[in-house]
Amino acid sequence: MTDLPKYMRALVIDRPGAADELHLADVPLPVPVLDELLVRVVAAGVNPIDAKTRAGGGVSAAITGYPVILGNDFSGVVVRAPYAAFPLQPGDAVYGMARVPRTGGTYAEYVAVSALSVARKPARLSHTEAAALPVAALTAWGMVVDMAEAAPGQRMLIHAGSGGVGHLAVQFAASLGVHVTATGSTGSLEFLRELGAAEVIDYSTTRFEDVVHDLDAVIDLIGNVHDATGSRSMGVLRAGGILVNAPTGSWPTMQADAAAAGIRSTGYKVSADARALDRISALMDSGAVRVHIDTVFDLTDGAAAHRAVEGGHTRGKVVLRVSD
């Protein structure tokens, strides 16, 4: 790879631990193979799975050696394409999702990613905005569109509607004609209405099961980590309705409980899918959906970014600024 450096700056960990384990290091540039593109990273999104993996949970069991570069979300510019006729070529602005730890992470100046994991960046978004999207947007899309089969007239409850995944799930559902009810904190209710929620519920003052019932779907981004949110959600679904749960480890008996209650249920794990990203890009460029950035940190402040995500009270997404 002529004309490129042999080493790059990256935010790494040498072992599992607290946020302060994240530190800058010079590491070898990744070498793309087969269908992979080499992308110069401008910005990288920070997700809860990153913090969980850093702390020894998440996908850390699949780590085979250290140091490790974390981060799945990226937006940047192609510097190497897999072949001459590939639709994305050097200089093209792209965004997508890495697969840590199967590949190197995006908290780095360069990342090598499969062609199946990268799409052209939405034209109306900055790199910072685009970097906030892939994991959260693909998770929201998979839960709302693929699993719950969102359609006009459907009635859907979305828990944690102002979070990174939730604020996109609310918009995807509303854009498809779904009647959305979203739960959130007192301070997030107007934000949820702006996103397209037809009804909002302040979880600090109202039990959602007291005010909604006979729903077609529940998008559960909390599970039973807090106040048995997942178990309580079963009672607001109609017979045959579906509960889609993202924090799958929070509720080991979910499927058995749902079957006993006469409803359908499934966990969901995000897939890196360029075709879905293209559909999401179209919604972004049309203005039908927007991404909300809570905070942008420099790569040198990665530990602070992780602490912000772990605090659990961010609105929208946290992003790392990697390069110009």
UniProtKB/TrEMBL annotation:
Coiled coil: none
Top-rank lineage group of the source organism: Bacteria
InterPro entries: ADH-like_N, ER, GroES-like_sf, NAD(P)-bd_dom_sf, YIM1/Zinc_Alcohol_DH_Fams
Enoyl reductase (ER) domain residues: 17-320
GO MF terms held by the record: oxidoreductase activity
Gene3D superfamilies: Medium-chain alcohol dehydrogenases, catalytic domain (3.90.180.10), NAD(P)-binding Rossmann-like Domain (3.40.50.720)
Pfam families xrefs: ADH_N (PF08240), ADH_zinc_N_2 (PF13602)
PANTHER family according to UniProt: ALCOHOL DEHYDROGENASE RELATED (PTHR11695), RETICULON-4-INTERACTING PROTEIN 1, MITOCHONDRIAL (PTHR11695:SF294)
Protein name, entry field: NADPH:quinone reductase-like Zn-dependent oxidoreductase
Organism whose genome encodes this protein: Cryobacterium roopkundense
Biological classification of the source: Bacteria, Bacillati, Actinomycetota, Actinomycetes, Micrococcales
